[in-house]
Amino acid sequence: MSQGLFATLQQLLGAAYVQSSEEAAPYLTDKQGRYVGQVIAAVHPANTEEVAAVVRACVASDTPVVVQGGNTGLMGGATPDASGSAVLLLLDRLNRVRAVDTDNDTLTVEAGCILQTVQDVARNAARLFPLSLGAEGSCTIGGNLGTNAGGTAVLRYGNTRELTLGLEVVTAQGEIWNGLRGLRKDNTGYDLRDLFIGSEGTLGIITAATLKLFPLPKAQATALLAFDSLAQAVQFLSHARAGFGASLTAFELLSGDCLALLREQFPKGPQPFLGAVQPWFALLELSDNHSESHAREAFESVLGDAFEQELLANALIAESLAQSEGLWLLRENMSEAQKRAGRNMKHDISVPISQVEAFVDHTDALLQQHFPGVRNFTFGHLGDGNLRYNVAHPLDSTVEAHMANYAALSLLVHDSAHAHGGSISAEHGIGQRKVGLLDRYKSPVELDLMRRIKHALDPNNLLNPGKVVEVIAS
Ligand SMILES: Cc1cc2nc3c(=O)[nH]c(=O)nc-3n(C[C@H](O)[C@H](O)[C@H](O)COP(=O)(O)OP(=O)(O)OC[C@H]3O[C@@H](n4cnc5c(N)ncnc54)[C@H](O)[C@@H]3O)c2cc1C
């Protein structure tokens, strides 16, 4: 059967665009090297019609289909299982810009477009596409939509969902739904678009999207701020929101331990606040639609008030683009700094901003009680209540011994996030890594509704099976 399907796929796409499992090896391991899959074939369709034809061929042979974009996802969502029974759908050839519409401030692109390319296309049209994340040089719009990616500008512009007006989707039956409407208002029944966004390839294959564009800011201002406590950082954030309004674009937290780790791993990198005693820092970015001087005035006024009200311990304001990039490098280098220091346990959690301090205090203490000596490297998108709550091995122990505690330690972190009104996945999704956890944190009613949606759209469970929601055989 699989030989027959391989030949059919070659006929549909041309032999050059159908790879065997061996040839497709680079696509079969996830970004973090946790999962390795096998496939009947990996295919590179040229357009939406070819995607639909591939899905129909797979349906006819009862073959699962796994869609992959840039393979930068962190939950193993784009990696097929090891059974070798699936077809991997790669959208690298669906990379056309279909329309730039500056009257409506929209951009229509195919799902395989790299995020950075989309940002560039918008900038060339004197517009901003604000989605921005560490993997932007290799992740795709399809993957961003599949995971409802967040990133550093959610505070101002929202997640990928909020940046999307319309979609084109190939259904689990191989039909094409053209929902590429660029309307800001459209209340005509169930919102199918929102169903597909964040569904991680389990409900349909997104082949194109109409995205929102925004005015390019006239000026940007960046500062690194130091705080005496997390509570102070949270109070400052509220003050900054009131003072800057919609101009506040990013508020990225870094603990003092993160800053020390960056110094250790990047001794030639930027070294702000050397010798500072504060335990928490945050990178603040302001986007101003008036002018450099307007941004500067707003900065001075809001930061000045904050000092007077003791909402801030210290501030370092970037005086040039180079300085601003240097400050952002701190945040961007955090993943690499941790990698260089050895594997650690990563948790992408969110809690209401009002609960951030309670969550951190409670969870840090609980960890020391159960796993003495572990080291916290907590950073993340504080403006969205989204923390990277990462835990490294005790200095008197090994990485291997620490990682052996993964299940118990992570359960404790996730239980704590849940108990503080939060989520076990803020922006990375569920994939295969967290699929077993939903039973613990979602109500039976919510899970049942999710399973019913999955069954209604993909009754044969052929789209990315084993991801997001476990389907109970009927
Ligand atoms: C250094 C680094 C920094 C990161 N920072 C962030 C961050 O700040 N915020 C954030 O949200 N994420 C972040 N991520 C995670 C990752 O980059 C995002 O999840 C990204 O959106 C994935 O895009 P991708 O094209 O690589 O998707 P993939 O990894 O290929 O796929 C991810 C999921 O989406 C599905 N999918 C892919 N394409 C489609 C499609 N066309 N239709 C339907 N489903 C599809 C896949 O099946 C899979 O389930 C980061 C990752 C790295 C490595």
UniProtKB/TrEMBL annotation:
Keywords: FAD, Flavoprotein
SUPFAM superfamilies reported in the protein's UniProt record: FAD-binding/transporter-associated domain-like, FAD-linked oxidases, C-terminal domain
Keyword Transit peptide: no
Gene3D superfamilies: 3.30.465.10, 3.30.70.2190, 3.30.70.2740, Uridine Diphospho-n-acetylenolpyruvylglucosamine Reductase, domain 2, Vanillyl-alcohol Oxidase, Chain A, domain 4
Record-level GO BP terms: respiratory electron transport chain
Claim: Flavoprotein is one of the keywords in the record: yes
Name the record gives this protein: Hydroxyacid dehydrogenase
